[in-house]
Every structure is written in C-alpha cells, then in structure tokens.
Design goal:
By secondary structure, this protein is an alpha+beta fold. The chain has four domains: 7-127 and 517-593, HUPs (Rossmann fold, 3-Layer(aba) Sandwich); 226-435, Isoleucyl-tRNA Synthetase, domain 2; 639-767, Isoleucyl-tRNA Synthetase, Domain 1, CATH 1.10.730.10; 770-831, Roll (Ubiquitin-like (UB roll)), CATH 3.10.20.590. Strands 10, 11, 12, 13, 14, 15 and 19 form a seven-stranded mixed sheet that branches. The protein starts with 6 loop residues before the first helix and ends with a strand. The structure holds one RNA strand of 85 nucleotides.
Length: 832
RNA sequence: GCCAAAGUGGCGGAACUGGCAGACGCGCACGACUCAAACUCGUGUUCCUCCGGGAGUGUGGGUUCGAUUCCCACCUUUGGCACCA
C-alpha cells in the first residue's frame, strides 16, 4: 500500500535538497531573458506573521511560474533591520538592540525556509550590517554633494513616545498620529536633515513608464498634491505713525493663488502667524495683540489649529499692502488658517469667491467685492450668503470684465489663463505650480539606525565624511534609552573627530537616518550584497534592473513607494542609476484579517501563527489556502475551517496519483474529453498567473482534479491522455505547492529531479477546443432550452435548431419571431 | 467636504469582450463505511412555488433582443486627504 500524504516528511526533505543543489540561485546570464521578482523585505520583528506568508507565497508562486516560462528569475530576500522596535524591545528586555535584531533574523530565516520559497539566499542583504549601511551613508553623501540633502531649522513633527522626529509621510490620520505607535505628534522647532523630494514632484506624478495599480497612482498623486496657479507680488507698506502705511519702498510680499482671475476681488491679505514679514509690518498699536496671537498659535497643536470646523480667528497687524493689479490698499491680517508650510505662507483673501476667506471676512466685518458673476445674477458683497465658487463672467476687474471663467483648473480656464499672461507681461506675477509634497525629513534622534555621515566644524561648517572613511560605524557601547535626544550624543568619544576640510576639531552628526532610507535602495544591494567598490556591482545592475515585478502592501503607497521612486530618480541624476523608474510593475496584496474580521493584533488575541499551521497541515496546504481563500489584492478574514478545503485537495491529489487502479471498462470519448479539460485548465491557469489571479488558479486545479476522478472511473487510466494529464497537472501545481509536486514528480511518476527545472507546458489549442456545445435558446432574453449542436454550426442552422426547439416553441406561444439573434458558439435569442 | 475602491447564496468567492448568475471551496442536510465517532466516499444545497414556472447580483431609473458587466441618480461600507490658498 502506498504511503499517505505526509507533508512533515516530504517538505523538509525537498527544502534541504533544493538548498544543497542551489536550485534557485540566479546568476547573470545574458543568454537568457532576466526576471527580477521582488517582494517587500520584512522587518525582523521576531516571528514570521501570516501576513508575511500572504505577501510572499503568491509572489513566490509567480516567480516560480516565470522561471518555468524560461526566465532567469532572481527572487531575493533580506531584512530591514534598523529601526525603533529593536530599541524598544531592548529597553524592555535589557538586551542590546543588535542582539535582539540578529537573534530575530536568525529565527526568521528558519521560518522563511519553511515556506519553501525560491529565495536565493546568497543575495540576502541585512540593512544593519556595516557592509550594507556603508552604502546607505554613501548615498547620503552623494545626495549632499549634489545639493539634494540639506539641513534646516523648521517646525517638525515629533513623536513623544518614539522620542524622535518623523517625516510628514509618517504622520497619519485626522489626529495626526505617529504611523508606528499611534501617539499624536507634537511640533518642535529643530534643525534637521532633509532630502529634496519636492524637486522631483513633477516627475513623480508621471506614471507612464510603469505598470502600477491605479489606486497607488491616485494615492501618490493626491499626496503630491499639485495645484496650478500664479504667484503674485504684493507690496507690504512699512508702518507709519499716522496709520494707513507710509509711502516709500515697502516689502515685496509674494503670494500663491490658484485663482488669479479673482485678483481684483482681494480685499485683505492674510499671513501665517509665523511669517517673517509679520514683525516688520505690525504697527505699534497692534503689536501687543499680534504678539499674543502668535504665541497662542504657537502653543496650539496641529490638530487644534487645523480643525476645519472651528471658528475663524485672526488679528489685524495694522499694516497695509498694495494690490499690484489695481493699486488698491488693503489691510494685512494674521490668522492660523494660513499655513506657513504651504505656498509662501501668505495669501490674498478674496472673500467673494473663497469659503474660508468669506467666513473670515464676515466674522471680522471686512469688505467683500464680487468679481465673478454668472449671467443673469447680481451679487452684492454686503448681502451674499456664501462665497460663489462656480463659473461666470468677470466683473469689477477693469479690462477683463466680461471674460468667461469656467470650472476648470489652471491654464485650461480661460479667465485664469488670460490673467496669468497679463501678469507676466506686466512683470507683477507669473505662472506657478505648488505641491503639497514636503521635503523628506530623515533625521532621527535614535540609536539603532545608520549614522548620518556628516561632520560639523566651527570654522568650516558641515562637511560629509570622505568616502574612504565610510562607513561611520555605529558603536555598540551606548546608553540607548530614549531621551528625546540622540543616544550617540552622550557617547564620551564617538562624536569627536577631525574636520574633513581643515583637519581641525570636528563633531560628528549624532542623529541617525530614517530607516526608509535603508529600504529605498535595498533592491540594489540584493544585486551584490558583498560588493565593496560601490553600492552595487554595475554588471549585475545592467543585467537585472529594473525590478520586473514588485509586490507588497498598499500601506506603503505614500511612504516607501514614493521614497524609492525619488531615490531612483535622484540616483539617476547623480549618475549612479539608470532608467526612469526602479520598479516596472507593482502589485499589492491585501491583508489577512483575524477570524473575527478585525485586524490581527496580540491585544485582540486573534493572531494566526504560521508555524503551528505548517505543523498541522504542511506548507503546501497553507500556500494553497492563502492563494485560494480570497482575491489577493483584497485579502479577508482567516477561516480555520476553510483551510480544510485545500488540505483535502492535496490529499485527493495524493490519492489520485498513488492509488490509481487499472480501469474495468473504458467509456468512449473519455480521452478526448480529458485532454480538452486539461488544456482548457492550462489555458486558464496560465492566464491567471499572468494576471495575479491566484484564487482561480487553485479552484481551476480543484475542478480539474474532480474531473480526473471522473475520467479515472470512466477508464482513462493508462491511456496517453491520462499520462499527459498527470504530467501537466504536476507542472501546474509546482509553483503553488512546490513540495508535493516535486515528491509526486520524482517518486511516483519516476521522472528525473527536479520538476522546478521543467518548462511550463504548452496549451494545445486543438485539444482545448470543444466540438460539441450546449447552445442556449432564449425567448425574449429568457433561458428556455439548451440544445447540443456541433461547435462550428453555421448561423442559419443554429437559428433553425433553436426555432425547432420544443421548449422554445412552447414559450413563443404561436407568435411569429420578430427577430432572431445569434451569438456564435453561445446562444440564440428569439424575440417575439 | 474632496478623491478612490467595493457591494453577488448561510460564508469566502467565480462569471475573461454585454450573452447559461452562483464555478471552486467552507458550512449545512441526507446516505454509505464504522460497535461508535473522526477520516473518507456519494447525493443535495440562491429564494419562492399550486412543480407549469416565477423572482433574483445594494436601491431606483436608463440604454439594449439581452445588463453582475455600460450610463445616470442615490444608499451603504472601506481606504486616503482635509482651512493646501
């Protein structure tokens, strides 16, 4: 009697065999087409989560499929091993972050191996290794030397729990909380290092070179937040003792507006409270009020300040500005609804056509002058109930009166376009585009990260550590407890160095880099993780890049996935990388939820542990279940009973392959029909692999298995069609359930090792074609009969056959057909 | 408020270009095997039904011979953004 399906025996056996033979090692080979399959690298948090399996095993299956299709496939793995949790865990357990991290990595390597994925472990990269962060630091220096990294003092987001500053992308939600620990952030004025991501804003909006999901494109586009408009220079008048501003020079005051067509309706100006011009224009009589408002605004949290539903507040500065389009003299206010971080921190207020300005003007009883009016209406600034945002004709706007203004934004709007032209001609403004995207703040006041390779010298200022002195090694002997200041700062000797410029005394930067910096280029370190002449071996780069398929979670849409694109484009402009984009194709998986439909978390107690599942069912079953149970891009709740489906499937596969007996009788046509089903399934499975539709791959295989049981009973066993079915079946299974496919391939079919070196089978279109079809007969669009006809029946015969159908005639009720529609190979619809 | 995605049996989901709605699986019911249970195998499983059929893919309309699929309006859920000038 044949042995039972025993995954705990066969899975480790093949895993070690594959490893021993280096079966999945991918080397540069110009004779073969390359395929770089990449899945987002894990953070070594300690245990492999079912979410890792969900992200990785379908990606592995597809990489395996591409391999069978004849590609030279590289599928690497590594660890994003710098970061806060290591420090938090270290504080809690009193172990060094390094020890904690590397112990976790070792543990996760074991767990990753149990998936049976085709990782090329030789290419493993660990971002906290010196040989890795050496090049992270090199990239920082390069960015600095090319003017893309700079230091500035600004109000930044600070997480009081993580005790560090954060990038704008890492602050989430309405309450502006830390992406990692969900604590609401606070503002701090600090000098920090930034990367000039905004320089690439326009290029980042162009997705034409890449095949990325619409959803990610939308999220990134919204995040970058492009607005078209104009910048216009107003003149702020210096204060004078007698009130309405003195004549004289004045200060230029630049504003950004998306609505230059409403310039004639500007009745006041508003500056952000932090705006540098505030002090200069404030009059003595207003000074105390202005100062009080400024300090009050500074005390407020962002959440309070940016709540959209609160009453408008603000204070008159006493100063006035001159509107360059009509020389009107208008008052300058400060208000917290104007943000220093967007545009120039100053606006012209057009209350007649902007809701916020309208609310402000009504509250403080400021003038409202309508300048756009739909035909047939007549606005009155003193009585309008709300701002008018819609289209109309320009009024009160000198020579532009009568110009049409539409709903369109920017240059597409004729009113906006002619005004911009005129502003440029007169030299008082110009077309301007503003982005919501901010520069990337990368300084972190934490220990467990790559040190920023910069040196401060009292005479020479900041200079990068020379390349030949990299890496700047992170010392082990520090007090890493978080204090809100960089732990490296308190090391007695580490920060002392010499200035690379003058050789005098120098001080190292003690902040470390955001770990998103490490993960922005890890796909390049996989190319050559031990290479020591640069971040990667150019030969490997030229062969493998770009990444052909990148898979990972949608939650990185506005973080990692923007950073890595920026990083690539900056690298290209610095002459290090090539091509427009790092990842040609992106696909996102959804999330596996707990059985209660909620996000898995330790506190909810709904976490599914993959190790226990592998012990109970084997990796192949878990792989198959994860591909089968939901659409991959959507995910869904785990169903512990549902796992039984794929588990039974594999048992039934095993039984079919190992316990098939000779047929008692042979039914006619069984071979033809079996071949048809096999090749139809192959066609479908091939298509689904291309489309990342993993759930229907598994269901198609189940369906075919059900049919093969039927064919067995009808006597197909031993025929050439049966042998072909077994062969193709295992090849189709191989990417999904690599262990059981290998076992049956070698041990039962007696083929030579390994199935994973076999080509993907070819669809025999002739075999897949049906020769008899069930023609649907409809009367008035309702299904009334199915008749069996030859597949290439002609239209006239098909129609006649339908009209002859007894059921159809019954429903035609003696009436004459008004129209007969024939859909080749599908149906006939009789309309009466 | 703005932007995006999604609503199909008891459940997860399938239906490729407008053409048999509910593949495949879970669950459930019945039967076989068993002293018994589990496993396994078989049959059935959208709802209503006078067994002829009728209704049915969030709701209401529209286009069409024909709509889960296309168009319009609305409802619900999820995600993102939100005083961004």
């Amino acid at each position: 009697m044949a042995p039972k399906y025993n995954p705990t025996k066969i899975e480790p056996k093949w895993q070690s065999q594959w490893k021993k033979d280096g079966l999945y090692q991918a080397d540069v080979d110009p004779s073969k087409p390359k395929f770089y399959a990449l899945t987002m690298l894990p953070y070594p948090s300690g245990d492999l989560h079912i979410g890792h399996w969900y992200a990785m095993t379908p990606s592995d299956a597809r990489a395996r499929y591409m391999r069978m299709k004849g590609y030279n496939v590289m599928f690497p793995i590594g660890f994003d091993s710098f970061g806060l949790p290591a420090e938090n865990a270290a504080v809690k357990r009193n172990t060094h972050p390094r020890e904690w991290t590397y112990a976790n990595i070792e543990r996760m390597r074991q767990q990753l191996s149990s998936m049976g994925a085709m990782w090329d472990w030789r290419r493993e990269a660990v971002s906290s290794d010196e040989k890795y962060y050496h090049w992270t630091q090199y990239y920082f220096s390069q960015l600095y030397k090319h003017g893309l990294a700079y230091r500035k003092m600004s109000p930044v987001d600070f997480c009081p729990t993580c005790n560090t500053t954060l990038a704008r992308e890492q602050v989430w939600g309405e309450d502006r909380h830390c992406e990692r620990c969900e604590t609401p952030v606070i503002k701090k004025d600090l000098e920090q290092w930034f990367f000039s991501t905004t320089k690439y804003a326009e290029e980042l909006l162009d997705f034409s070179p890449i095949d990325w999901p619409e959803r990610v494109q939308t999220l990134q586009t919204n995040w970058i937040g492009r607005s078209e408009g104009a910048s216009v220079i107003f003149t702020a008048l210096p204060p004078s003792p007698n009130g309405r501003g003195a004549g004289g020079e004045g200060f230029p005051m630049e504003i950004f507006t998306t609505r230059p067509d409403t310039l004639w309706g500007a009745t006041f100006m508003v500056l952000a409270p932090e705006h540098p011009l505030v002090d200069q224009i404030t009059t003595e009589t207003q000074r105390s009020q202005v100062e009080e408002y400024k300090s009050q605004a500074a005390r407020q949290s962002d959440i309070e300040r940016e709540a959209t539903d609160k009453e408008k507040t603000g204070v008159f500065t006493g100063g006035y500005a001159v509107n360059p389009v009509n020389n009107a003299r208008i008052p300058i206010w400060i208000a917290d609804y104007v943000l220093m971080t967007y545009g120039t921190g100053a606006i012209m207020a057009v209350p007649a056509h902007d809701e916020r300005d309208f609310a402000f003007a009504r509250y403080f009883d400021l003038e409202i002058i309508p300048v756009i009016q739909p035909e047939g209406e007549s606005f009155d600034g003193t009585t309008m109930p709300e701002a008018y945002i819609g289209p109309g004709l320009m009024i009160n706007s000198a020579q532009f009166n009568g110009t049409a203004v539409t709903d369109e934004k920017g240059r597409k709007n004729p009113g906006i376009s002619v005004v911009i032209d005129w502003l440029e001609e007169k030299g008082i403004g110009n077309e301007s585009i503003n982005y919501r995207l901010r520069d990337w703040l990368i300084s972190r006041q934490r220990y467990w990260g790559a040190p920023i390779p910069m040196v401060w010298c009292d005479t020479c200022g900041w200079n990068p550590v020379p390349d030949d002195q990299l890496p700047v090694v992170l010392p082990d002997d520090v007090e890493w407890r978080p204090t809100g200041e960089s732990p490296l700062k308190f090391h007695p000797t580490w920060s002392k160095t010499t200035c690379p410029e003058c050789g005098g005394e120098g001080q190292r930067e003690t902040d470390t880099m955001d770990t998103f910096m490490c993960s922005s280029w890890y796909h390049l370190r996989y190319l050559s993780p031990d290479y020591d002449k640069g971040p990667f071996d150019p030969e490997e780069y030229n062969y493998w890049m770009p990444v052909d398929t990148y898979t990972g979670g949608i939650e990185h849409a506005t973080m990692h996935l923007i950073y890595t694109r920026f990083f690539h484009k900056a690298g290209r402009d610095m002459g290090i990388m090539k091509g427009p984009e790092p990842m040609a194709q992106l696909r996102n998986q959804g999330m596996v939820l707990g059985e209660d439909g909620e996000k898995m978390s330790k506190s909810r107690g709904n976490v599914i542990a993959p190790d226990a599942l592998v012990n109970a069912y084997g990796a192949d079953t878990i792989r198959a279940y994860l591909m089968f149970f939901a659409r991959w891009d959507l995910g869904g709740p785990w169903d512990s009973q549902g796992v039984g489906g794929p588990a039974r499937w594999l048992k039934r596969v095993w039984t079919l392959f190992t316990e098939t007996t000779k047929p008692l009788k042979v039914s006619a046509g069984v071979e033809r029909e079996l071949r048809r089903k096999v090749h139809q399934t192959l066609k479908r499975v091939t298509y689904d692999f291309e489309q990342f539709e993993f759930n229907t791959i598994v269901s198609s295989l189940m369906e075919l298995l059900n049919y093969m049981y039927q064919a067995r009973d009808e006597g197909a066993v031993g025929t050439p069609a049966w042998d072909e079915a077994l062969d193709i079946y295992l090849r189709m299974m191989a990417p999904v359930t690599p262990h059981v496919a290998e076992e049956l391939w070698v041990e039962v079919l007696g083929n030579s090792y390994s199935i994973h070196n076999q080509p993907w089978p070819q669809v025999d279109e002739k075999a897949a074609k049906v020769d008899e079809i069930a023609l649907i007969v409809q009367v008035n669009g309702k299904l009334r009969d199915r008749i069996t006809v030859h597949a290439d029946i002609n239209e006239a015969d098909a129609k006649q056959a339908a009209l002859d159908s007894e059921a159809a005639q019954r429903f035609m009720d003696g009436k004459q057909p008004r129209k007969v529609i024939y859909v080749p190979g599908r149906l006939v619809n009789i309309v009466v």
